């Protein structure tokens, strides 16, 4: 069955099972590998993408649920990696292993869309569903504050 998606502003027609997780369509069919597989159960946040500007766990969302909606992956967050969150991530050396970072960045960008000047508590709440095995939570929080300042 053909499913039409708009991924990072481009319409793609995929001949896939409509129940296929969006993550696998993004990674295996479209070839955008920035979105990561972590747990497959919507627990870790590594697979976060935007669907109509809402953060979703792409490992549990079927492709059919994204049909006709705007899907944004880490590759589509900015044209050349200059989104304020991406810049702050690099400036503060947030990643260690880097595996969870695309999901972390997508959650942080969504937070700043909703709340351009978040407190530590706001950040902790918004990022609580993202697991970082390396434990860089302090740097993540600092980078979100930096990105908020840079957006002002």
Structure, described:
The protein has two domains: 2-76, Ubiquitin-like (UB roll) (Roll); 84-151, [2Fe-2S]-binding domain (DNA polymerase, domain 1). Helix 4 (101-114) packs across helix 5 (120-127) and helix 4 crosses helix 6 (137-151). The chain is 38% helix and 15% strand. The protein is built from six helices and five strands. By secondary structure, the protein is an alpha+beta fold. It has helices at residues 22-30, 63-66, 84-91, 101-114, 120-127, 137-151, and strands at residues 2-7, 10-15, 48-51, 54-57, 70-72. The model has no long low-confidence stretch (mean pLDDT 96).
Percent of residues in β-strands: 15-25%
The CATH topology annotation of the largest domain reads as Ubiquitin-like (UB roll)
The CATH homologous superfamily of the largest domain is termed: Beta-grasp domain
Taking pLDDT < 50 over at least 5 consecutive residues as the criterion, the unreliable ranges are: none
Spatial separation of the terminal alpha carbons: 45 Å
State the gist of this model:
The protein has 152 residues and is α+β, with helices and mostly antiparallel strands. The protein has helices at residues 22-30, 63-66, 84-91, 101-114, 120-127, 137-151, and strands spanning 2-7, 10-15, 48-51, 54-57, 70-72.
């Amino acid at each position: 069955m053909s499913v039409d998606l708009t991924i990072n502003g481009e319409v793609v027609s995929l001949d896939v099972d409509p129940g296929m997780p969006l993550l696998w369509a993004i990674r295996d069919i479209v070839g955008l590998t920035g979105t990561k597989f972590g747990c497959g159960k919507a627990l870790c946040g590594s697979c976060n993408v935007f669907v109509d500007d809402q953060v979703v766990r792409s490992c549990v969302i079927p492709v059919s649920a994204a049909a006709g909606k705007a899907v944004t992956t880490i590759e589509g967050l900015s044209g050349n990696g200059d989104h304020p969150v991406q810049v702050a991530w690099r400036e503060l050396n947030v990643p260690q292993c880097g595996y969870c970072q695309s999901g972390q960045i997508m959650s942080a960008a969504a937070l700043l869309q909703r709340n351009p000047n978040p407190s530590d508590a706001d950040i902790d709440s918004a990022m609580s569903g993202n697991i970082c095995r390396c434990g860089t939570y302090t740097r993540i929080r600092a980078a979100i504050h930096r990105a908020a300042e840079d957006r002002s």
